Amino acid sequence: MKFTIIALQFLSLLFVGSALIGCSGIPFNDTIFNAGATDGISQNRGQSPDTNELSGLSKQELAAGKLPKGTYDKAPVGAFEHRDYSHVKLNPQEAVKLINRYRSSKGLGAVSLDSTLTTIAKSHSRDLAKHDRISHYGSDGSNPWDRVERSGYKPQLAAENVGTGQLSIKEVMQGWKDSPGHNKNLLLPDAKNIGIALVYNPKTEYKTFWTLVLGSKI
Asked: Using DSSP, how many helices (H) and how many strands (E) does the chain show?
């Protein structure tokens, strides 16, 4: 299966001042309250693969969560300790309303919650929380297209936004809107379905792990 992976970068306010933090460690973004988010990643059936594919890792290394340097980021120790996560939660219906309101303002059609994409999003958020990192790659080396396709969803389009450290759906949505890659995914004209998930683990440095999966079927 051929696919294209677009933009693998990170956003955060972990450090003061800056713009985008990418795989090479470019500075963080202070438009989000001490929160991180990988840049959006999207793939279409039939497109050519780019150079962001994983290679050279054994199954044992992937099982141990050893992704290649530059395909993930981890939070500095204590980066989010000052934030109050006691009321953090996700209402999927509220998330759909926010996304559809935004899409409608740009003249785009609505998306609906899909149980399969929701399961995929939950699984990826749990995986990120387990390893306390932010990435579009799972600890098994999978990319978003892999995870959607193997679920049986049969995608024509698959896209993913990920965020870490945010306190609410409104905060993570604002961060995604402010990031070109994330925003492009929110406004994909052909997207029909979404799945969204939040995993909160107070024992991690990132604390919250948000995953949004968008798709449309063949």
From this structure: 6, 9
Cα–Cα distance for residue pair 193/109, rounded to 1 Å = 11
- Backbone angles phi and psi of 119, in degrees to 5: -60, -40
What string of DSSP letters covers 161-213?
A: EEEES-SSHHHHHHHHHHSHHHHHHHT-TT--EEEEEEEE-TTSSS-EEEEEE
- Are 210 and 125 within 8 A, CB to CB? yes
Q: Note the residue count of the chain.
A: 218
Q: What is the pTM of this model?
A: 0.80
Q: What confidence tens digit (pLDDT) does each residue in 40-63 have?
A: 665 666 553 333 455 556 666 666
In this structure, what DSSP letter does residue 21 have? E
Q: In this structure, what DSSP letter does residue 17 have?
A: S
Q: How many CA atoms lie within 13 A of 76 on its CB side?
A: 9
Alpha-carbon span 40 to 186, nearest angstrom: 9
Q: How many CA atoms lie within 13 A of 14 on its CB side?
A: 23
* Distances in whole angstroms, Cα of residue 25 to Cα of each of 21, 63, 70, 74, 89: 5, 25, 8, 11, 30
Q: How far apart, in whole angstroms, are the C-alpha atoms of residue 15 and residue 79?
A: 9
Tokens matching residue 59? 């199954």
* Beta-bridge mates of residue 155: 217
SS3 86: coil
Neighbours of 48 (CB within 10 A): 7
